[in-house]
Amino acid sequence: MNAPRTRVQRRPVHGVLLLDKPLGLSSNDALQKAKWLLRAEKAGHTGTLDPLATGVLPLCFGAATKFSQLQLDAAKTYEAIAVLGTTTTTGDAEGDVVQRCDVDPGQLTPERLAAVQLQFSGPIRQVPPMHSALKKDGKALYEYARAGVTVERDARDVVIHALKLTLDHTDKAKVAIKIIVTCSKGTYIRTLGEDIGAALGCGAHLTFLRRIDTGGLGVERCVTLAQLEAMPEAERLASLQAPESLLAQHTRVTLDSDNTARFLSGLRRRGHWPDADAVAVFSEAPVALLGVGHIKDGELVPDRLLSPLEIQQILEGTPHLQASGTLEKL
Predict the structure, then answer these.
(1) Quick check: helix, strand or coil at residue 286?
(2) The whole model's pTM is what?
(3) Residue 2 confidence class, pLDDT cut points 50, 70, 90
(4) Helix, strand, or coil here: 323?
(5) What is the per-residue pLDDT across 128-180, written as a single tens digit (0 to 9) for each?
(6) Model confidence over 125-142: pLDDT tens digits?
(7) What is the rounded CA–CA span in Å between residue 48 and residue 57?
(8) Catalytic amino acids?
(9) pLDDT in tens, 99-119
């Protein structure tokens, strides 16, 4: 007879896990796995990363979930490989081949690549791919696509902040383009690869996609699920970044104890501060993140606050693992 399984309690965990998402795993599956490994009560991700993509996926736990929208809106940097001469139904290697054509590498001069690079830099318009989670009449586009139905999609405005195209070859000696792009939210890299292939007159599809940065959080700071799983419990918790790691672009304001209590009650505070659209507000003693707000005409306005309990839990540290195998709050 099997021994009964030890019940593991969820616990309050506050912070950001910079995950290097593996190939083939959905963002939600990666989130649930990390949440289970950390025994966290509350978790959320900062926007999905395609199962066929790898790379930076910030996962928010506890109080950090209050600031996840900031990463949704942040610029992101990707590295991709687009094989030229073949288009597919999905814009990547998973789809069926739609068209093939010969590619002459001699025609892909640096000057031609530079012209196409310029064509797709700055504000551009994209038609979302059918194989995407975007919804039409309450139904995801990929559901229509799987049923063999193509629906009308409106072009969307996106911004390509930086783009670099270089000639490359795959391990099968196919001609390919290496794409390094920093783009606004809502940009489809598969569509960008297809459009670049069309502009070069030969078509293209992606065979590799990796997100290497989101909002200044680079892949070099990430951990993998395998690394997280191999860590002792204490090391897993130590791998979390503080919630304020999501607020690096915010102006920092520090309040004394009297103003801290009032600010946490949702009251506006007055001071000699310059106007600022995004402010991270901290208490003076002890130093602790209180929330975010903005400053207008010398008035600090709270926008999103941590609760006193969340602040206390962050200051006291994360719950520890008991010898019985159950987790207990400090």
Answers:
(1) coil
(2) 0.87
(3) low
(4) coil
(5) 887 767 777 777 777 777 777 777 888 899 999 999 999 987 666 689 999 99
(6) 998 887 767 777 777 777
(7) 8
(8) 50
(9) 999 998 888 999 999 999 999
Q: In the chain, where do the E strands start and end? A: 15-21, 43-45, 54-61, 76-84, 86-88, 97-100, 122-126, 135-136, 139-140, 156-169, 175-183, 204-214, 217-218, 251-255, 269-270, 276-283, 288-296, 299-305, 320-321, 327-328
Q: Which two tokens stand for residue 304?
A: 């999103």
- What secondary structure does DSSP assign to 214-263, as a single string? ETTEEGGG-B-HHHHHHS-HHHHHHTPBPGGGGGTTSEEEEE-HHHHHHH
Q: Is 156 helix (H, G, I), strand (E, B) or coil?
A: strand
Do residues 185 and 92 make contact, with C-beta atoms less than 8 angstroms apart? no
Provide the pairing of β-strand 54-61 with 204-214.
Answer: parallel
CB 56 within 8 A of CB 20: yes
Residues linked to residue 291 through DSSP beta bridges, in sequence order: 281, 305
CB 289 within 8 A of CB 242: yes
Determine contact, residues 177/168, Cβ cutoff 8 Å.
yes
Residue of 8, 24, 30 whose CA lies nearest to 228: 30
Assess contact for 128 and 145: CB atoms under 8 A. no
Tokens of 25: 């795993």
Q: What's the rounded Cα separation, in Å, for the pair 49 and 143?
A: 18
